[in-house]
Design goal:
The complex is a heterodimer of chains A (about 80) and B (about 650). Chain A has about 80 residues and is mainly alpha-helical. Chain A contains 4 helices and no strands. Classes of the chains: A mainly alpha (about 80), B alpha/beta (about 650).
Amino acid sequence: MPNILSSATSKQMTKLIVYGVASLVLYVLLYLFEDEVLAFTEKGSWFFIIPVTAAFVFSFSHGNFTSHFWDVLGIKAKK
Amino acid sequence: MELTTSFIDLNALDVTYLLVVGFIAGLVSGFIGSGGAFVLTPAMMSMGVPGIIAVASNICHKFPKALVGAIKRAKYGQVDVKLGLITGVSAEAGVLYGAHIQEGIKRAFGDAGSNLYVSVAFVIVLGIVGSYVLLDALRLQRSGRASTEKVSPLALWVQSINIPGTMVYFKSLNARVSILFTIPLGFATGMLAATIAVGGFIGVPGMHYVLGAPSLMASATELVVAFVMGLGGTIKYAWSGLVDIRLAMIILAGSLFGIQLGAIGTTYVTPHVIKLVMGVIMVLVLFSRAIVIPVYLAELEILSPLHPHLATGLKNVSFIILIGALAAGAAIIFAALWRGIRLHRLELATPVPTAVSPSVAVPANPQLSPLGRFERFLVASDGSEYSMGAVRAAIGMAQKCGARVRVVSAIPGGNAELYAMGEQLVGRELDAARSHLDQVQKEADASGVACETEATQAGELHEEIIRQAERMQADLIIMGRRSRHGLARLMLGDVTAQVIGHAHCNVLVVPRISELVGRHFVVASDGSRFGDAAAAAACNLAKFCSTPVSVVSVTLPSHSDQRREEARLAVNRIASFMKKEGVVTETRLPEGRADAMIVDVAKERNSDLIIVGSHGRTGLERALLGSTTEKVLNQTPCAVLVVRSA
C-alpha cells in the first residue's frame, strides 16, 4: 500500500483531500440539519429544488472524491 | 410528528446496509449502464421505508449517479450524448405512460394486481431479452471471438432505412438512423423503468441489437438516458414531497464509489463480459420475480390461498435471489477487473521492441533539388470520396517521377483511453481503412508503382500525418480536403490546413473531382524566397510531365509603379530560369486580389495544378491574417501544390 500511495502525485492527493473534506462537510451538515431538511422537502411543490440541488452538489463533490480515490489507489482506466 | 410517519429513523446498521448495497448497485450500473437500482427499492422497503418513499428516494439517487457515471465514461469516449438525450426524452414520455398504467392497475386490482403486473412484466421481458443477451455472450465466449462484435442483421436493416426528415447521424452507430426507430426504443425503455425500475434492460440491448451500437457504447449511453429519466422522476416525486433526501444521499455515497470502479472496469474487458453480466443479472432477477407470482395470484384469489409461511418464504427467497443477482454481477465484474489489471500490468512490464522506420528504397534516378524533389510521397487517405482524387494523383505522379508511395489511412482514436472505450468502433473503422488500402495497393501494383500501406489511429490526425512524413523523409504529402469555411474553420480547424501549416515538406492538395494529368501548371510568385521555392518545384515537376507553365505575379491597383516593376522582374527571372531548363513558359501580371487572380489564370489556361509558396502561418496568425494559399484552395477546383521554402 505505501508504494501505491507514494506513486500518486501530490496534486492528486491534494484534490482527494479537498473533495473528501467537502463531501464530509456536506454529509455532516445533512446529519446535523436532518429534521429541517426533511421538513422542507416534505412540503413538496417548489421545494423540489432542494433535493434536486442537493443531488447535484453532492454528486459534484463526492463524485470527484471517489474518482480521485481510485486514482490514488492506482486503479485507473486502461491506457 | 408527521415526519416520523413518512420518513423512518435511521440507525448505524441501516446506513451501513445502504452504503454496501449502494456500492454494489453502483458498480453494476457503472459497468452495464443500469441494473443496479432494482434491488434498492426492496432493500429500503425491507428496512421499513414506505414503498412510495423508497421508489422516490431511489430515483433521486439514480440521476446524480448516472450523471457521474456518464461523465466518467464520456472521458473514455464511450458515450453518444446525442443518442442518449434523444432516447432519454422519449423515455421520459414512456415513464409517464408506464406510471399511468401502473396507477390504473393499482386502482382496479389493488397492490396484489400491481405486484402481479410488475412480476409478469419482469418475467416476460427478462425471459426474452435476458436469455438472448446471455446466450449471445456465451456464444461469443465459445467462438473465441469475444473481443469482436458484429452489427446484427436487424441493426443493419434499421441503418439502411432512409426516412427523409427524420434521419440523424449517431457517432456510436457511425451511421444515420431515423429517429422513428429511436423514439419507440426510448419509450419502451421508459415504460420498463416505470414498471420494474430498470429501463436499461431494454435500453442497452435495444441500442446494441436494434440500432447497432457497440455494447460498450450502448451501456455507457444508457447512463445519459438514466440521467434524463431520473431527473424527470425526481422532480415528479419531489414535487409531491416524497423524496427522503437522507436515504438518497446515503445510497449515493456508496454508489459513487461503485460507479467509478464499474466505469474503470469497462476499459479492461472484452464486449462479451458486458453482455455476460447483464444476461446473468437479468436471468436471476427473472427467477426472483417468477417465484413470487403464485403469491400474488393467491392474493387475487386466482389460485387457492397459500399457507402464510409459504407465502413469506417465497417472498424471502425472491429477495435473496434478487440480492444474489446483484452479487453475481458484481463478482463477475470484480473478477474481470482483477484479471484485466493484472494482465495490463504484465503487458506494461514487458519490453516493447524498438519501432523500425518504414523502409523506403532509393529510387533508380536520384534527384538532387531539395525543393523540387519528388521521390517519396506520403498519401493521407481516409478512404472517403474526398481523398480518392489524392490517391489517383499520387499514383499518376509516382509513375511519372519514379517515386515510391506510402499510403496512410489514419482514423481518429489514437488516444489510449478512447481506444479502450470504443474498441469495437475503432476496430470497425480500422477494418474499413484496411479494406480501402488493399484496393489502393492493387491499383498501385497495376500501375507499376512501388507502394506500401498502413492503417493507423491517431489522436490528432495532422500530427500523425506529419510524423509519418518525417519518418519516411517524404518529399511530398498528398491529401484531399474537406472544406470548412468561416466560423467552422476557425473553431474546428481543418486537417489539411493544419498539415500545410506544420509540415516540413511540400503538400499537394487534390480536390475530390480534380484530375492531375499535366495539362498546364500555374506557379504564383510574390518575388519572395517563398515564390522562388514554388518556382523551383514547378520547374522540376514540369520537366517530369512535359507541361507548360504560366508564371503569375499579382499586384493590387493601389500598388506603386516600383512594386509593379518588381513583380515584372520576378516573373521574368523565373521564366528565364525555366526556359533554360527546357520548360515552355509564359508570364502573367494581373491586377487584383491575389487569390482570385491566380484562380482566374488557372481557369483560363485550363490548368490542373496551381503551385504556390507557403509562408507557414498557423494558428492565430493564420486566422487573423488569412492565407492566400488557403483562399486559393477554397476557390479552385484543381489541385494545389504548396511548397515549403528550405
